[in-house]
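Translate structure to sequence.
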């Protein structure tokens, strides 16, 4: 039996004015709905507003190509074993051009084989950052050559931002949609 959510959706009738404003702003933006990490973040409406603006930039507008952004997000979701994040971003990664075999390997906690050079640089950078909280000179220079200084900063920020969301959802026990599964639960 799954554990119950600790921070479920707040009924509209129980929301503060600040919570209603934060939810309305999120819904009016690119996300179009209040879901996933934003539900527990409603307990701190100012944090929700600030975090979602950062996330909107990182997910939709940063300088990294979408395929590489999604690769970084998946590596973060897998590192933190965050099912909701994985559930949302595995299909997005596939739509952005990441292969099903690579997605499956990341989900299984394995090194994906035969990555393209740009994917390999991003995967290595993110994996090192998650495991050791730093990156080697080789991983740094590979990423720097690939995406430049602003891209390196944005890549680190992607790992940090999605790590923030993963930790919030892990504490909140954010549930997967009915019937959804993640690779590490299937083993």
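Result:
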């Amino acid at each position: 039996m799954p554990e119950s959510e600790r921070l479920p959706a707040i009924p509209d009738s129980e929301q503060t004015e600040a919570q209603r404003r934060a939810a309305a702003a999120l819904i009016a933006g690119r996300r179009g709905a209040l879901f996933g990490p934003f539900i527990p973040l409603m307990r701190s409406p100012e944090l929700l507003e600030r975090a979602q603006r950062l996330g909107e930039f990182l997910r939709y507008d940063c300088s990294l190509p979408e395929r590489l952004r999604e690769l970084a997000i998946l590596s973060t979701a897998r590192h933190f074993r965050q099912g909701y994040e994985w559930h949302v971003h595995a299909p997005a990664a596939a739509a952005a051009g990441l292969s099903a075999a690579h997605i499956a390997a990341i989900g299984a906690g394995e090194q994906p084989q035969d990555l393209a050079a740009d994917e390999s640089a991003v995967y290595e950078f993110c994996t090192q950052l998650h495991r050791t909280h730093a990156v080697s000179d080789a991983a740094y220079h590979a990423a720097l050559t690939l995406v430049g200084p602003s891209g390196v900063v944005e890549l680190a920020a992607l790992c940090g931002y999605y790590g923030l969301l993963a930790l919030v959802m892990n504490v909140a026990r954010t549930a997967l949609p009915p019937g959804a599964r993640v690779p590490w639960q299937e083993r």
